[in-house]
Structure formats: C-alpha cells, structure tokens
Amino acid sequence: MVSSPHSYEVSFSGVGFLGAIIRDTKNATATIKIPMIRNMSILPNSDICETPCMTTNLAKQTDFDAIIIGAGACGLMCAVQAGYLGKRVLVLEKNDRPGAKILISGGGRCNYTNLYASPQQFISQNEHFCKSAFAQWSVEDTVTFFETYDIIGKEKTLGQLFPVSDKAKDVVNVFTNLCDDFGQELWCDAEVVGVEKVGEGFSVNVVRNGKEQNLLVPKVVMAAGGLPIPKMGATDLGLKTARKLGMKVTETAPALVPLTITGKDQDWYAQLSGNSLFCRVWNDKASFEENILFTHWGLSGPAILQISSYWRPGEWIYIDLLPHQNITELIQQEREANGKKMLLAYLSGLFTRKFAEAISDRLPADKNLASLSNADLENISGLIHEFKVKPAGDKGYDKAEVMRGGVSTDELSSKTLEAKKVPGLFFGGECVDVTGWLGGYNFQWAWASGFVIAQNL
Ligand SMILES: Cc1cc2nc3c(=O)[nH]c(=O)nc-3n(C[C@H](O)[C@H](O)[C@H](O)COP(=O)(O)OP(=O)(O)OC[C@H]3O[C@@H](n4cnc5c(N)ncnc54)[C@H](O)[C@@H]3O)c2cc1C
Questions:
Q1: Which atom of ligand 1 is nearest to the CA of 74?
Q2: 279 C-alpha to center of ligand 1: Å?
Q3: Do residues 250 and 88 make contact, with C-beta atoms less than 8 angstroms apart?
Q4: Which of 4-18, 66-80, 119-133 is predicted with the least confidence, judged by mean pLDDT?
C-alpha cells in the first residue's frame, strides 16, 4: 500500500521494475522490443477513396481501419496500440510534427504519469466515467509500457513521474518509432476541417499542404485535444464535430491556469512578484498543498493552477500561508522568551523579509510581541491562516495547461469511448469532459483513452 501525499491510498505492485509485468491482455509483446511487424509502403492516397460519391459500406473502400485526428498523446497511443492489434490507421496532424504538447510538457521533461493517479484526481460531470478506462489501462501499464522502450521513470514530487533522461523528446520518439515499425501512416501539416457521417462510415475533410481532400474511412478517432495554446495547433474540431453530430458538450473553460488580480490590489501582488511560498489553497470544492507564486498580474504556482480548475469567476479562494503551524501559538511561545521583538522582525523570520513587509501593511507591525492584544492575535491568525483572494479572472487559453469540460460523457460509452449516437466515432484525451489535476494525470487519461479506443477499432 502506498500512502499518497494527497491523503488517500492507492495500491499496486510491480511499478519500477523493468519488464516485471507481462501483460498478455494489453499487448502480447510488452516485454520484448516490438519487431517490425509490417512496414508496408502506402502510397499517398493509393488506398483512400477521394470521391465525394459515397456508397454505404465504407469499410470496403479503404484499407485503413480508422483515421485518428491528432498526433498528440491520445492519438499516438491509439495508433501504436492499434498497431499491436494489427489494425491499420492514418493519423492526421495539423502541426508540422507529432506530439507538440508532449514536447513542451513538464518544462520539456514530460511528467508522463502520476504514481498516485486514481479517478479522484479527475474533474468531470460524471466522476465515475473515467473508471473503466483506468481499469483497462492503469498507471502500472503506463510505467511498464515506457520501460519496455527504455524510458525509466523517476519520481520528482507527489508521485509525478518523469523520464530519467529529462527529455520529453524521448517520449515522442517511442511513439514515432513504433508507428514506423507498425507501418502506421502519419501525415503532418494536415488539418482536418470537417468530419461527416456518410453511410456506415465517415468522410474526413483534410487540408494537406494547401490541398483539400475528402478521405473515406469506416471509423474516426477524435484525439484533437482541447482549446489551450492555439499557437501550438489547438482547434475546436472535437467540440465542433460533436455539436454538429447532435452530441452535448459541457461548458469549457481554461484550467490549470494562473489567476489574475486587478484593481486596487494589483500593486500589492506585483510588489511580491517572484516570491514563492508553500501554502494550502482551498475553496468549497477542493484543497491543495503546494507552492504559490506571486506575479505582476496575480498568482501562479502549482497550488494556484490546481485550485483554478475548481474556481469560477466571482468566487473567493483561501490561502493558509503557514500550513501545519499555528501562528497564535508560535507568537505566544516567542513572546515568553523575547517579548520585545517587533512583529515585523518575527514575521521576517517565518517568511521572507519582502513578504513580511508586504503583509505588515495589514497588521500592527510596529508593535512588539508582548504588546499584541487578543484582537491583534486574532487578526494576525485570520490573515496568515485564511488569506482571502477574489481573482479577477484567469490568464486564458494562451496560458492554460488544459481545458475543463468538453464532449459530454453522457454521449460516450465509458467502456469503449465510442459515441452512443454515432457508431464508429470515438473521442479520447482532452476533448472529452475529463480533466486531470496537475502532475501527470492528464497524460494518464490521454494514454488510457488512446488504449481503450484502439481495442475497439
Ligand atoms: C505547457 C503545458 C504543459 C503540460 N505539461 C503536462 C505534464 O507535464 N503532464 C501532464 O499530464 N499533462 C501536461 N499537460 C497537459 C497535456 O499536454 C494534455 O492534457 C495532453 O496533451 C492531451 O492530450 P491529447 O492527445 O488529448 O491532446 P494534444 O496532446 O493536445 O493533441 C491533440 C493534437 O491534435 C492536433 N489537432 C488539433 N486540431 C486538429 C485538426 N483540426 N486537424 C489535425 N490535427 C489537429 C493538435 O495539433 C495536437 O497535436 C501540459 C499542457 C501544457 C499546455
């Protein structure tokens, strides 16, 4: 049993042992390097029907079992897992290279999973939805999968696993090499602009190198991600397609995003720009203990990013600036030995001098400890242990790590991630209403959903 820093418990065995687990049901060859099963040369469009005239049975018109839209974490895992099962896919990617977000993730080091991941760290209108996918593809599966391809994980903090090489590129290379080995086709600079249901299959409208084509295929995997960081290829294709096909989309918003402070308080935060503090941050829905970071425009740092996913405009958040300690008790102890010490000097020892000076404008800083009244102590305790913040907003999709909300889980089978109303269409990764905490959880969902979809193509 592993005790989690997030105050719940998970148990599993085998993590950390290279090749320790043979996963017959995942892929028969998990403990050996995957040989080149087939490396068929696929001439561009040689096996794709481009005609707009469709008959009903598209499965007979193309050799591809499916088109995967998006070569991100979910799409790449799906392509590789489909390869293990001998299924042939075409991956369409808008960017000029696959895995753009994997490459920048975790500061270029890729926090590819979290050892403590469980459904509790995912936000969704249906908190049970992700359970089936995680039962099919666990953290242990992620660890073993990457170890099989020489990516050994090291835990940084709070269960966050990074490659020992500290190179996100190594993670992407696992997928591109396997796609090559399996002969899976990957087109970059290929933006999908529309997906339509045609007969029993789909017409995928893609613009590749400025040329528009309609590709006909029996199944489509929507792994086009969410709205964050448009300059890195993000589009609303997943959401747009779902709506067009009559599916519900839950309200979307930036998540894991810094929060802004405007108005009269802005200068107070700006003066502390660059200061970082270990805190407990909470609201009525969640609570996190990690660092916060003061910036020129407000608050950032892991604890703020975490709470941002649970915050709605107009709401307050609360910060305990000295978690696990009691400032009243600390002051009482200190004044017995050192009653002449000024409050400012004492706070400077607990925090940085800069921070102590900043909060002193809200406290009787010019008093010595012995002369503090009970009302003063109450005031100090309130400020230190329940510092109230009403953010003006957030930094938006340009700075958000993920999108909250997405294609409604009501519309998808939790077991297969296939759209209930549109057989043959699958949604995985960030475009689905499943949003993880900071710390490798979102990749765990992307890998798991990619795996699940591949089993059902
Ligand atoms: C700065 C940053 C750091 C992060 N760090 C971490 C981390 O360390 N750990 C973690 O777990 N999560 C992290 N995340 C979140 C994580 O990157 C995402 O949750 C994850 O990438 C989602 O995977 P996905 O496959 O659903 O989408 P993506 O990885 O975004 O992939 C979607 C792909 O689809 C392509 N696409 C979009 N529209 C189209 C279209 N119309 N046609 C063709 N292609 C299209 C996009 O170009 C993209 O390549 C981070 C995110 C950011 C922004």
A1: 25
A2: 29
A3: no
A4: 4-18
Structure tokens at 262: 């405007």
Could you read off the pLDDT of 237-285 as tens digits, one per residue?
A: 999 999 999 999 999 999 999 999 999 999 999 999 999 999 999 999 9
pTM: 0.88
Is 75 touching ligand 1 by the criterion CB < 6 Å? yes
Q: How far is the CA of 102 from the centre of ligand 1 (A)?
A: 7
Q: Ligand 1 within 6 A of 237 CB?
A: yes
Nearest CA to ligand 1 atom 3: 105
Give the residue, by CA position, lying nearest to ligand 1 atom 11: 440
CA–centroid distance, 92 to ligand 1, in Å, is 14
Q: If you measure from the C-alpha of residue 74 to the centroid of ligand 1, how many angstroms do you get, rounded to a whole number?
A: 8
